Amino acid sequence: MARTNDPVALDAWYAVETLSDVTRTPRQTRLLGQDIISCRSETGAPIVHAVGASHHLPVRERHGCLWTTLGKPDREIFEIAEAAETDRRFVPCGWVRLHASGPRVVENFLDMAHFPFIHTNILGAEPQTDVPPYDYEIRRDVDEVWATNCRFFQPRIAVTEENGDFVQLTFRVPTPFVVMLYRVCPSAPTRLDVIALFIQPMEENLCRAQPVMFLVDDRSAFNELLKFEQVIFLQDRIIVENQRPILLPLDPHGEIPTKADGSSIAYRRWLKEKGLRYGTTLNKP
Amino acid sequence: MSALCLYDYELDENCYKVRLLLAALGLTFRKIAVDMFPGAEEMAPSLLALNPTGSLPILQDDDLTLHGAEAILLYLAHHYDPSLQWLPRTPTLFGQVAMWLQFATVQCGASVLARRQSLFTAEAGEIGLLRQSKHALRIMDDHMTLREFDGDVWFVGTSATIADLALFPAIALSRDYGVEHEAYPALRRWMRKIRHLPGFLTMPGIPNYY
Fold it and tell me: Angle CA(A161)–CA(A162)–CA(A163) in degrees, nearest 5?
């Protein structure tokens, strides 16, 4: 498969490896159709280069991952302010491969309506299937998509919680291939748990994704936190892989959205404004 | 009452087989979550001390430690199922259950590897594994087609056995590694029966809806 020529996709930063996996031993993966190799130099500095090319690609070590780009991003990698807090539990959940377009994975993450049916008795349960009204916008000052004042009844919102309650959520899309969730922390209501999903588009219809959590939870065992998120993400995988068309439709007349799809509408509109072709139906025959 | 303890990884199909039987028998047990991916904790010294092969599940029952899903199924059925349903003792049925347990370990082993590759590796899956997986599913579907001619709904005998539980994940999770269910109509009908077993539970990749 050839490297894409979509400038919108090329000129962005992508997480491509977990930092703890980046060693002197080279690892190969694929980004936007380009095979790339990453490793550390003798001095410990991370290196990424395209297969068959010797020059090094730009790299960053952020949010527990190694990031690179095939193009020329006009800005640095987004901040996660909460990640700097010293009492945060950092839980990288591992890369999972999905036969799906990256933007489809983002959109599924934004969707609350599927919680009771796909994440039954964890993130939702019948009959409480209602998605209460929420706000959504494209924030022009930071060029991100946000959905705020989201509420949803969840039978078990976090590892620490046994009883159901309305969870307070905020969604953030800082780049077309990263989606985040801020959740009012059940055991520390003045603070927000942060869950980010980093997506590495490999082909238009194939990606790797890794959930990364920054949690306020000094009680739960690491493996329980890991299990909680992995189960949810793997429940999503089979759903996202079966969505058709495979590429995310950006034509507003292609589908009939409901009120609960507001965040998705904003995301699609934002992608269309940017002109993202990779993983979408934009400019496809 | 003994203290059953399962070293478990929620996304592992072999652990799932044991969880299915524990649920069907209504046994209470302690579950210890192991970070198989990405942590490869089953290869850590503490777990290698329990199971030198570095795999899950591992079951502890007081002083006994067992590894290997099919061995654990045999032990649990033999020890905790007074009805003898899950592990029939008549020689013919016992032999057939043993045969399908071996099939679940050996022939369905390719589907375990195909699924792990599809989920957790950066590279494309091996074609050979996919072919072996489909071959095993074809044998299973042919068997159940013949069984249906005789009015039978389980792999062996007249009620569900541990053979059914051991074989279930290979087909139920096949979409995780890109094999759809359309080509296996007899297995689809059998899977619907499995879903109505007492205590049946799903895992990621086996949706609640159908």
Answer: 100
Chain A residues lying within 8 Å of B209, measured CB to CB: 117
Instruction: Note whether B57 and B67 are within 8 A (CB).
Output: yes
Asked whether residue B104 falls in the same domain as residue B59, the answer is no
Q: What span, in angstroms and rounded, lies between the C-alpha atoms of A197 and A178?
A: 6
> Is pLDDT above 60 for B1?
no
- In this structure, the number of other CB atoms found within 10 A of the CB of residue A82 comes to 15
ipTM of predicted assembly, 2 dp: 0.89
Least CB–CB distance from A234: residue in B41, B122, B205:
B205
> pTM (2 decimals)?
0.93
Cα separation, A162 vs A146, whole angstroms: 29
Nearest by Cα to A46 from A36, A31, A33: A36
Inter-chain touch B33–A224, beta carbons under 8 Å: yes
Tokens of B50: 């329990």
Position B205 in a domain: no
Q: Whole-angstrom Cα distance, residue A116 to residue B207?
A: 12
- Tally of structural domains, chain B: 2
